């Protein structure tokens, strides 16, 4: 079909210019190729469209009728094709994406700002949810979660490196206290807990590595949050130790609001992935979004 549309367009240019050489230049093809296109059309239609001599070119009566009948339609189709190509270069649409606040703040938002500037017709609807990695429940197009929590029937694209956890505390909390040297020392400290809606509301178990073995510690403290940013704020305020992703606490550490401990014993969690149904691969705008979010080593 595309070849026929191209041939019809070529004939329209020849009819308008009344000159094979000029028409070939406009179309960006050789004169010989253009002559072959016209001859092929005449053969397929069984009618003569052009009177051609070495010096002149003119439409036959059948050629003029052909132009009258199909000319407007060909021009309309060409305009439509140009619009489609333009749409490809300027994607539009709305993508509803569910993720938790840590992901939105640390992994998603920093990457998509350039994307939003490049594609002004794209709308992003972000749903903050610490619940299960379930896009259907939130009526979302896609979601972001750790790879080990995502259903196997969805497509995924990795958007982060493995997540290094960091044990931190504020100088005001640590003043006068012994720094923990090993995981079991944490039972003597006030710690800030995090509740995990994705795991039925249970408290996050702090995991460490000691002598190449995983050690799990259930910590105690006065405060429990389901949002990591609230845990971070409480830690900076001096209400206890916190165990958080390095990307979340990096700024607070750099300005001295938090100090790190037991770095050699903190675990590294699986990376985060954006997950989505395969049909979204057909959306140019979504594929462009994947390219922006995709993690590169």
Automatic annotation (TrEMBL):
State the InterPro entries in the record.
LysR-type_TF_proteobact-type (IPR058163), LysR_HTH_N (IPR000847), LysR_subst-bd (IPR005119), WH-like_DNA-bd_sf (IPR036388), WH_DNA-bd_sf (IPR036390)
Question: In this protein, which residues make up the domain named HTH lysR-type?
Answer: 1-60
Q: Which UniProt keywords apply?
A: DNA-binding, Transcription, Transcription regulation
**Entries under PANTHER family matching the protein:** HTH-TYPE TRANSCRIPTIONAL REGULATOR, HTH-TYPE TRANSCRIPTIONAL REGULATOR PGRR
The family classification in the record reads: Belongs to the LysR transcriptional regulatory family.
Q: What is this protein called?
A: LysR family transcriptional regulator
- Species, as recorded: Vitreoscilla massiliensis
